[in-house]
Batch of 4 targets.
Target 1
Amino acid sequence: MIAMQYGFVLPGDYDMAVVRERIAIKGPLLDTLPGLVFKAYLHASAPEKTYAPFYLWHDEEAMHGFLNGPAFAGVARAFGWPSVKTWTPWHATVGDAIREARFATRTSAVIAPYAALAELRLQEEAYAQQALAHGALAVVIGFEPVTWTIARLVLWRDTAAGEAMPVALHDGAEIKRYDVGHLSAPGA
């Protein structure tokens, strides 16, 4: 599996109704995309306006097929040429009710040099199990050894469940909260 995300920070006066309408129209087009486990159409209005879809692919060939195809070209024409982040999952649980996700938390942090990676992975697995016990519909924990980062995506049924779960990751962790406009999950 491979996790992927790109994002666009939109101007402060951008009408987010445009993003929500685009998600409503384009979202269902990937509901049957081969090789896609899921795509969460993430967007937020605060602290800044963003559109930042998150993908979980069965393999890199499926991801490349999307990035090389017309759907991604359409995104790039609409919003610009993004930097695409990828991670190999240390953990990926996708529950049967994933399509009910309406809220997401995404945390990322830099791994300290010479960190005990096996221990860190066990800590992240424990976090994933805790999130699932608190009602998470999906948990993906990604590891990226080029920039030594770790990322967590947790999908929730509602904001109350997501807000109740602590998201602390590491010193200097970046925490983002999103609404889920649509969830394509052909591989779930």
Target 2
Amino acid sequence: MPEVVLRPAEEEDIAEMLALYAPYVIQTTVSSEYDAPSIEEFTRRWRTYTQKLPWLVCRIDGEVVGYGYAAPHRTRAAYQWSVETSIYVAQERHRHGIAGAIYAALFELLAMQGYYNIYVGITSPNERSMKFHKAMGFIISGAYQESMYKFGQWRDVLWMGKSLRPHDGAPQPTVPFPEIKDSPLVTRALNQAVEKIHF
């Protein structure tokens, strides 16, 4: 069996994650960027997000095959318990449960941190992504009509959301991911998520 590792991303993973992401920018509307970021810009994003939120990488036999992360949904105070997520899997590695495993881990880790809501924006049309997110427990929240222009066409962005916990009472402050990163609970969540990957 191949060796599968799912863990928090480190600086040593950045070049391979960027190489995986770049085709999504250049060839698809999955990303709203026009040009792939430089390695300096990609490193800046990783450093910024991981100060508070998880960024996970999946390696199979040493090769980066997918990664996913959470980012702030909005920057104003009242939104601090909501995040947006992004997951990218190497094109040739689709349909092996990698994205589902990364999501399963993110759900657990973000819940541990005290977050309540996850949102994802999906450029329309993308029926496969919609079905996948529904299967992961997301529901349609709304859409930004003709809000994105790429490859010579205006496109809608569908928003889907998932609740991580009941919305009862005032929320407690969230815990920065570096404070729990090395805990046994995080290790267990990552190991359990790996079991969802199949060959």
Target 3
Amino acid sequence: MGLLTFSLNLTLDGCVDHQEGIADDETHALFTRLMDEAGAMLWGRVTYEMMESYWPAVARGDEEAPPAMREWAAKLEAKPKYVVSATRKDFPWTNSHHIAGDLREGVQRLKDATPAGVLLGSGKLATELDRLDLIDEYQLLVHPRIAGHGPTLYQGGLPGTRQLELLSAKPLRNGVVAMHYRRAR
């Protein structure tokens, strides 16, 4: 069984608005490495639609982008992408698959079938999967910014505190700190 790793950008005040992070070659290289190590990506519908609206065009060369972003886009195109949605059934982007029905069962099946692990990149979905006790690790990029607005990580709340074990903390040149935690069980 593979691990489910939640990975996301957030500011010091917990804002997870994708426009608030520092998107440079170093952060893209880090996320490319995380994606390379994982066997599949997992998103909620909103994140999928945001990604689908931009990255396929970068992969095709229809959008101008620096080399690190092109590399990410090409690898993302080839990577299996799984989407949780109760409202959308059709996911035409290359290698996209729908997880329908019981959330716990669907995600557990995905973990069981993906020995290299699954990389989760949706904040709202992470809250639901954490409530179901399915997240094993957290790879968070903490950006040196205070956004002063939401959405924020886990704003929907959890039933209890999650104890984590720090595996690594690496500062990047741009001031971002890459934090890697494992769930203490």
Target 4
Amino acid sequence: MTEQTAIIAGGCFWCTEAVFNDVIGVSKVESGYIGGTTENPTYKQVCSGNTGHAEAIRVTFDDAQLSYADLLDIFFATHDPTQLNRQGNDVGTQYRSAIFPLDAVQQVEAEAAMSRNQANWPSTIVTTIEEPTTWYPAEDYHQEYWQGEGQRNPYCLAVIPPKLQKLRKSFAARVKA
């Protein structure tokens, strides 16, 4: 097993975390903040849109079971990468679609994934590829949110099940039982 790390942002981190927790080869998903200027930002600060941070997830995965390229294909299929600084009703730079490559190989793969996935979208993909700045884990109550509080949150109940359905339909061989 070769453990790898990927950092991606696709809107609300509760939603992207829920998707990637169901992917074979993923051992850990941590919600957090990246891409901004405020040190140790809080959820409230990030939600204000003034920190420059994106709500993101840091995915730990076994690249013998899941390649970075496949991870990015799942990322592009389970959120709308054509919406600038928003996902649905979540609006602001904190909800931007972004990839934070951790090395030169991931940079090349991110560029290739954008080109490869453009054919699946009627509008231009606006996902950014950004320098990975300091990663700040989100507060504890945001971790594994869908497995707990999210099951009672009307927003999550409206947004997450369709993403999980798309994952199961488009990537059935990649979904944990």
